[in-house]
Design goal:
By secondary structure, the protein is α+β, with helices and mostly antiparallel strands. Strands 1-2 form a two-stranded parallel sheet.
């Protein structure tokens, strides 16, 4: 992934897409920045979150593993 015109490459996403954009940027050194809107960034905190976010904690734990959420 490289810019044809030497412009910055920005990953952008909303909600879960914001978390995905951040993950993609972390794993790709060609991405210069991230814009995330309303993303669930603190995945361990989902466990004690309000009813809207709390159901996502088991999914995050299944994807990243219990130890993966501690990192």
């Amino acid at each position: 992934l490289a810019s044809q015109e030497s412009r910055p490459i920005i990953a952008w996403g909303e909600s879960a897409g914001a978390h995905i954009a951040l993950t993609v940027a972390r794993n790709n050194k060609d991405i210069d920045g991230v814009i995330g809107e309303a993303g669930p960034y603190d995945l361990p905190a989902l466990k004690s979150a309000d009813k809207g976010w709390a159901p996502l904690h088991p999914i995050a734990e299944a994807v990243f593993g219990p130890d993966g959420l501690k990192k």
